[in-house]
Amino acid sequence: MELQNGQYCFQGSLNPLDLIETYGSPLYVYDAARITSQYNRLVSAFSVPDLRIHYACKALTNINILRLLRQLGAGLDTVSIQEVWIGLKSGFAPNDILYTPNCVSMEEINMAVEAGVRINIDNISILEQFGHLHPDYPVCLRINPHINAGGNSKISVGHIDSKFGISIHQLPHLIKVVETLGIRIEGIHMHTGSDILDSDVFLRGAEILFQAALHFPDLDYIDFGSGFKVAYYENGVETDIEELGRNLGARFQAFCKEYGRDLGLMFEPGKFLVSDAGVFFARVNVVKTTPSTVFAGLDSGLNHLIRPMFYEAYHEIENVTNPGGKPRIYTVVGYICETDTFGVNRKIPEIREGDILAMRNAGAYCFSMASNYNSRFRPAEVLIHDGKDYLIRERETLEDLLKKQIEIPIFA
Ligand SMILES: *Cc1c(COP(=O)(O)O)cnc(C)c1O
Fold this sequence. Notes:
The chain is an alpha/beta fold. The protein has 12 helices and 20 strands. The chain has 2 domains: 2-29 and 275-402, Lyase, Ornithine Decarboxylase, Chain A, domain 1 (Beta Barrel), CATH 2.40.37.10; 100-269, Alanine racemase (TIM Barrel, Alpha-Beta Barrel). It has helices at 16-23, 32-45, 63-72, 81-89, 106-115, 124-133, 171-181, 199-213, 241-259, 271-274, 307-310, 398-402, and strands at residues 2-4, 7-9, 27-31, 51-56, 75-78, 97-99, 118-121, 139-144, 166-167, 185-189, 221-223, 264-267, 278-289, 294-298, 317-319, 327-333, 341-349, 356-359, 380-385, 388-393. It binds pyridoxal-5'-phosphate (PLP). The site of pyridoxal-5'-phosphate has 18 residues, from α10.
């Protein structure tokens, strides 16, 4: 969404206020062109013979987004059997889906085997059980390289105390299990966190993976995970993808020579592909002045977009109805019955009751983390594609809230 001649629009023509008129508020809107350009940017950054971009669909699981990425040539990264099923339903071939569970039951892993997808195992005890049950099924190993990375403690997953991955220090044990059970290792993987700024972190992790990879002669790919940082405001810092492409690409090619053949180079970005393609719109119900603060209270809250409250994430907030208004300082809050603050002391063009505000970077981990807390309906989602808007999810209704509730006769 861009500001053109004092008016916000998508793809040069669509007015977000018209979208609100049609689909109501609050509303999630995603720009397919932006997802496409991010995908293409990542692909162009690497010149290796076999680059595989798997979209980490937990960022945004609408089936149309999955299909768009499949059309672009992406595979899928999934973390639950339900995401696997949604991926298959979206048309991904089982071979193009990687399933990376953590602390799930063997039953769930067996379902992934039944679905025929690629499986990433992050625990030696599960690997042993898996090897006994499915001696011929190839697996990928999630290695924890123990490097510190990630924007905050909830999303840093590669450190020494992390529950993710098989510690690189357990490599000798790991090799023993693999050899004893005759397990075919087709991939090795790391994912050390989200919001990694420094491409050096990827290179340090890569060196550790390369050393481990030499112990497994049947590899098909090496998966460097994700964690690319995107800019959260104008001129905000982001991972330098082009630099990463040059450095890691060259190092990877050299490694493949040492290994003896070409391997697939895999990444599994979520945020990078969809974060800034999304905008969340909400209406200002009240403007409330207290002795210290001017609050703008929205028809939304942490039930629809929890990242500011959960991660202290920053989302740029703009006034779509009054972009030319005189800037004033506001604290933007939700309507949930606890503190749910979207932004503190933000400079925003004058806000009037009824105005529509936009929150940027609402593509990743926003709708997918939405809930029905306070018995509110989750919003509708719209996709903009080739200058046209498509409703890709209806706003919920009271029926949706009550659908799975069972009224027992004694209270009826
Ligand atoms: C969440 C996750 C990703 C995606 O991370 P982003 O920061 O959104 O790019 C990739 N791989 C795994 C295993 C994940 O859990």
